[in-house]
């Protein structure tokens, strides 16, 4: 590499390293904004909102709120727009709408889970998980004394935080499926949403799940048996488990669907697929780190790794379709 190239790289590193030093600051500020309800109040105001009115509405100390808002304007979470010659106000952006609780594009519940103390504590135990001599349990369990599923079972508050987090991402992913790949449900008359939080999940999850029309809420264990249907739907399930466990779950799905016209619909990241190297490329790898932290043996998979678990579970063919999300749709047939 030429000297100027090396110097440029070093200069870049001197800047980049500060992003790591303060990597947590962005999620901490965004969490604070969600808890205060900043995005909700600005959206409801309907026109650029002056700081003084925002502070009054939120019952916040003006100069500290100003600093929080200055940070978020810098990161383009909110915009500043003129109200008149002398005053500016804050306006919503597509990004700030992701912070509105219960909003159409809300990621608020997911951010609150990802910034919750049990989750953050887990990341401190990542190194010992990687060492050969390290823990044989997930960083989540090392930090919190129980694996995620036992932890949520015995902590109703975190059960709710976790389920709401999953539900908020699920809403966005399902919208992306319906928009980008609606044909996936063609001809499907009955479907089981394995680990879907409502339709078929662990008994303690189903016990607090809402009821929707004719949808049956079934508590059970996907390693034991899955209700008979045309299609088994598994969104963000298999990445929680290692290959052996995935094969067990997939074999149960295969037993549950019809041999001739049944299928399994998997919604998961596929590492190294073309789409992954551009816009959302970083996200598959982030999720893979998250899986290492939260699960005992879970992982994100490449196409080759998906092919292995599907063939080992007795599926003879599968196809992979992209959607506007980190996940792809994998349709697998007996
Ligand atoms: C990562 S969440 C995904 C939830 C949902 N599919 C979604 O995309 O929002 C994994 C789900 O699997 C459920 N789960 C874990 N072990 C299970 C088991 N043995 N049987 C059925 N569901 C299980 C959890 O309760 C949780 O709801």
From TrEMBL:
Q: Which keywords accompany this UniProt record?
A: Methyltransferase, S-adenosyl-L-methionine, Transferase
Top-rank lineage group of the source organism:
Eukaryota
O-methyltransferase C-terminal domain spans which residues?
A: 198-315
InterPro entries this protein is in?
COMT-like, COMT_C, COMT_dimerisation, SAM-dependent_MTases_sf, WH-like_DNA-bd_sf, WH_DNA-bd_sf
Example of a GO MF term: O-methyltransferase activity
Catalytic residues (UniProt):
239 (proton acceptor)
| Family named by the database record | Belongs to the class I-like SAM-binding methyltransferase superfamily. Cation-independent O-methyltransferase family.
Q: Write down what this protein is called.
A: O-methyltransferase domain-containing protein
Identify the taxonomic lineage of the organism of origin.
Eukaryota, Viridiplantae, Streptophyta, Embryophyta, Tracheophyta
